[in-house]
Every structure is written in C-alpha cells, then in structure tokens.
Design a protein that fits this description.
single chain, mainly alpha, Helix Hairpins, 85% helix, 0% strand
C-alpha cells in the first residue's frame, strides 16, 4: 500500500511539473478538465442526476468503462452523450499517452543520472587505487 502512495506522489509531481513546462500536456489537461466539468454540469441539469452521479458517468464514459448503471433517458442527453463520447475518448487517450511518454522520459533521465553518478564514483575509486 505504501508503494501505491509513493507512485501516486511521483505521478502527481510529474503532472504538476509538466503542466508548468509542457504546452501540449497543459492543453490536453485543460481540455480534459473542461470536458469533465461540462459533461458533469450538463448531466446534472438535463438528466437531473446528482453531481457525483454525473461526474461518475462522465469519467466512466470518457475512460470507456461504461458499466451501464447510469443511462441518459432524454433525447438531448443521448445526443450529447454521443458527441461527448467521441470528444472525450480521444482526449483521454491522448492525455494518457502523453502521461506515459512523460513517465518513460523521466525514468530514462533518472537512469542516465544514476549511471553518470555511478561511473564518476567508479573512476574516483580506480584513481585512488592507482
């Protein structure tokens, strides 16, 4: 359980740093949040769902999980859901791909730093022996 929180911390730290430095990541994050807020607001108003139910449905639809426990019942709700599905799935996939790319990039940088440190330490020890 501790490793989960450590990994979550590293993920959130990476996201915060990249939001500040990476324009593409910032844009994807912004669009993702706007889609979630907009869909949540829409479902609370049109489908008369609670905020939690509307947010839950928005996330489940965006992530393509779709349990089927909540279903839009109005015609406008169904049409909105079709459009929202196309927009949100693409955004979610792009955001997830960018996040994975960033994590892999950070791991490669960490490996490079470790190797550089290790090689410098190794050379110092070899020079002392000579």
């Amino acid at each position: 359980m501790i490793s989960f929180f450590i990994n979550l911390y590293h993920l959130l730290k990476t996201v915060v740093v990249k939001i500040k430095n990476d324009g593409n990541f910032k844009l994807l994050f912004f669009v993702l949040v706007i889609l979630l807020i907009g869909a949540t607001f829409f479902y609370t108003q049109i489908e008369d769902w609670t905020t939690i139910d509307a947010f839950y449905f928005s996330v489940m639809t965006m992530s393509t999980v779709g349990y089927g426990d909540l279903v839009p019942t109005t015609t406008i709700g169904k049409i909105f859901t079709i459009i929202y599905t196309f927009l949100s799935i693409g955004t979610f996939v792009a955001f997830t791909a960018k996040t994975v790319e960033i994590i892999i990039e950070n791991n490669q940088i960490d490996k490079f730093k470790f190797r550089k440190f290790f090689n410098q330490h190794k050379r110092k020890n070899e020079n002392r022996r000579s």
